[in-house]
Design a protein that fits this description.
2 domains, three-stranded antiparallel sheet, disordered N terminus
Amino acid sequence: MPQPSPDHRSTLLVWWHRRPVVTALVAAGVLALAIGAIAVVSSSGKKSVLTSAGAGTSDAQGVGGSGAPVATSPTFVEVTTTTLPLVLEVRGAGLTTGAASYDASKAIVSAGAVIGNPTNEIALDVQVNINLKDATGNIVKTETARISYISPGSEAYASDDFFLDDGAPRPVSVDAQVLAGSFQTGGIYDFAFSNVRYSSDQYNGQINGSITNPSGVNATQVHAQCALFNGASVIGGFYTFVDLVPAGGTSGFHGSNGLIPGMHPTSIKCYGTLSALSR
């Protein structure tokens, strides 16, 4: 291809510099492309969104009907995304106080709490502080119950029993606090409980029931925790470990941990998890 002569190149440069409108249009186009590239590579909690209003368009009639392209400035909108913290809920707590079977002068307390997981993730390493308070609001005794995990949208139950020191004020209420160690997505199965019932004699309370394993794997040392209710109110709790619940099978369980005689619950709800002892 023949090259323009030096005089021809000089003529082109003179023509270019004498057309400030063309120069301005080209410069504006380059600037718009540079801003668009910055928007594409931007990444943070705030997103720069390039809207289609006028950006990269031209007016067919041009300014004054001249037909020349019209460069328009891009419009940016700041969009902030907010992630709410994942938290568990204490949905109820309560207690029953009674006399120790080995010494009627000593008080024992059965306490329980209802813990809800309203999230769509599994709550892991759940810690529940169960604080017993006296009539003045002072904490007289504290124990920590642990739940290995709570599946999404489920309720679990934390329980413990308390032996009060001689002369300690009698507790009248429970203040429960809950904290999950972490959350993770994924599927997990829940054990099913049936025919759970309470009985007692003059010395002890006892719970009997059945637990079913819906999975295809044998479960050992299943940690079962229950809350006892009188109507909608929590009146105490129970906990035990079930040695073996076979895959797809049902096992019985019983125990007296956390119970005192004469509780007479109207309903009992339980939740089971694999424990650190499970194999």
